Recover the amino acids of this structure.
């Protein structure tokens, strides 16, 4: 740029206004969607907020925990921390058929972390408000821990409240899982 050349303020303002308008359109479009992380356990399709999960890995060795609540499969060592691992198929007495390669989805971080045994890699799911169905249509006991449920084709995905769910299973008060 030549320092002697005058700056066209109107052109600069128009460029900035166009960039701001483009960003606002992108943000408005993004805000239309309900973004979640979806995963399956048998026929059960669950959702959690994207920011509530911290890690996905192949199922590590687990250590049994005598006297653990139903559905607690064991404990895993993750980065030097002990993480309880839930098996929702046991907790909700679902079909015991599990894939050979199950995965571990870690919800929460640090001492608040809880693992869930899942059947495959989780995926990002997007829904619009019109996809929401009434929780009364969900015929699964986990619905009592749901924030919402969404229809995707023939499937209903249940958006679970991990704080309430883990607190009930472990009989503890949780702040931010």
């Amino acid at each position: 740029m030549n320092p002697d050349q005058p700056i066209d303020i109107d052109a600069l303002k128009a460029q900035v206004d166009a960039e701001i308008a483009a960003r606002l359109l992108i943000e408005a479009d993004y805000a239309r969607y309900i973004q979640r992380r979806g995963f399956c356990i048998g026929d059960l399709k669950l959702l959690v907020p994207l920011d509530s999960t911290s890690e996905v890995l192949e199922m590590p060795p687990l250590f049994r925990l005598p006297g653990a609540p139903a559905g607690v499969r064991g404990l895993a060592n993750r980065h030097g921390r002990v993480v309880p691992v839930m098996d929702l198929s046991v907790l909700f007495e679902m079909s015991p058929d599990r894939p050979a390669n199950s995965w571990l989805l870690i919800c929460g971080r640090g001492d608040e972390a809880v693992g869930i045994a899942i059947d495959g890699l989780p995926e990002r799911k997007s829904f619009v408000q019109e996809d929401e169905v009434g929780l009364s249509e969900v015929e699964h006991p986990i619905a009592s821990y749901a924030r919402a449920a969404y229809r995707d084709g023939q499937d209903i995905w249940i958006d679970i409240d991990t704080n309430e769910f883990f607190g009930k299973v472990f009989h503890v008060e949780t702040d931010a899982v």
User: Anything to note?
Assistant: Helices lie at 9-31, 88-91, 162-170. The chain has a mean pLDDT of 84.
